[in-house]
Every structure is written in C-alpha cells, then in structure tokens.
Amino acid sequence: MQSLNILIVGNGKYKNDILNSKYLNKLYIAGEQESEGVINLKFNTFRELAKKCKALGIDIVFVEEEKWISEGIADVMKKNFINCLSVNSEWTKLGLSQNYMRAILTKYEISVPPKVTLPVDFPILIKGDGILKKANSMQEIISIKKEIFDTMPELSKSVFLEKYLNGDKHKIISIFDGKHLLTFPNNKISPVLLSDYSKKLELLLQKEKANFMGFINSYLIEENNILYNAGFSFDFIMPDMTAISEDCRKDILFICMSAIYQKLDEIELR
To answer: Which of 33, 97, 169, 216 has the least CB density, counted as fewest CB within 10 Å?
Structure first.
C-alpha cells in the first residue's frame, strides 16, 4: 500500500495514532487551533478546503467535529472526488431526528428505549431533536416541557417521554464502506450481542441504500441482556486497534483504505 497524505479536520486529538502509522506520508490538520508537529491548514469554506486537498494530494480526510459533518463537508469532498470518512448530510438525520431514528431502528428490529405516555416510575427522560432532559417528578416534566415550548417552540413537537434505563452504558465505534459495516469489539459487551447489533445496523444501511463511507458511533444501554440504542454520533473517534488481528491490520490507515476499496469484510476481528 502506498504512503498516504492525511488531513484531519479538527484539533487533531488523534494525531499521534495517525503519526504512528507506517502508511503515513504527510499529516495535515485543518482546525481552529494550531497543532504542533504537523502541517496546519486554514480554510473558510469546504470548497476552498477541497481545492487545497486536491493540490496537496490528500488521500483521506478524517472529520473530528460533528458541526462540520452536519454542515455537509462529506458532500463537498465527494463532489471533488476526495475520500472523506464521514457521514454525508442526508444521513446526519439518523443522529439529529429522534423520531426518524426510532422509526428506522424499529423497522430493522434494533431495540430503542420504550416511550412512556403516563409515567409511574421516575426518573424519566424527556427527549426530542437536540433535547435530552431528566425529570424526577410529574411537576418537573410539566416545567421542562413548558420551558422547551417557550424557548424552542419549533422543536417542541418532537418531544416525547422515554423510560430511563439503569443498564450499563457503552459507546460502540463502527465504520461503513458503502457495503459492509465493521464494528470494533468492546470487551464490556458480549460478542454475541454486539455481533447481532452490528448485523442489524449493517442491514439497515444496506437496505436503505446509505451512500457514504465513514464512522458511526452508537450509544447503547445494556439491560436484561438487550442492547438498546440511545443515539448516534458521527465524529471520528479512534477505535481500539488491539482488537484487530495481528497481520499488519492494527493500523487505522490500513482499515480506512480497506473501507475506500469496500473491503471491510476482509478485516479479521479477534
């Protein structure tokens, strides 16, 4: 595999993992702060950044912050034929719209925390698009709902009550290549449960014709041997590379190039 020019859009919190890659040629960072030991870039628009990527021969773009993902950085990079490992603007709705997320996960038999109409047990969660509050009484529910309606009336229609789950909370990192989903192991979750969740999420993305390659972070709650999905994020988070088999595949750039060539199904997990 050739040496790669890599751009991180963000503050470079995972730059050391990239710098240690044997496949790295040059590392660039485009963020709001200067980063030491790398080449720093500035940009005003994604189009301007895409032009710089072309001029510098950037092979892969990582995006660390969701604000740029939600603003459509992956769409601009794709138009300019630059490999950007990020969800496109269409699929950010999986993380932005609670009701859309719940509907599509249910369609593919991925468990979500139950909605509640008349709460009996507390605490209870008040959720909506961009809203997450915990209430310990009926009076608190009324107060929080009123506050949401008064300050964010456009979002109040998305609000619902959700059962508060006391199970173990997990963050799971996956990468999708347009065909295959690779979910990195988590030693706190049963491999059987995690495999079942990953297969269902992969089926969802395949059947719904998800047209991106990039990272998906699932926030899961395990209760009574069930994994409930409590939400998604799409920023680049470095996975645990020790979970990958020995044959030179502990390198994140190797895995990312496998994603670009839609060969994630060939990566062996322990």
So the answer is: 33
Q: What is the pLDDT of residues 10-41, one digit of tens each?
A: 999 999 999 999 999 999 999 988 888 899 99
Burial readout 166-197 (b: 16 or more C-beta within 10 A, e: otherwise): eeeebebbbbbbbebbbbbbbeebeeebbeeb
Do 195 and 165 contact (CB within 8 A), yes or no?
no
Considering only the C-alpha atoms of the chain, give the largest distance between any 2 of them, rounded to a whole number of Å: 62
For the chain, domains (ranges, CATH) are: 4-86 (3.40.50.20), 92-111+167-266 (3.30.470.20), 115-163 (no CATH)
**Cα–Cα distance measured from residue 100 to residue 211, given in angstroms and rounded to the nearest whole number:** 18
Give the predicted TM-score (pTM) of the model.
0.93
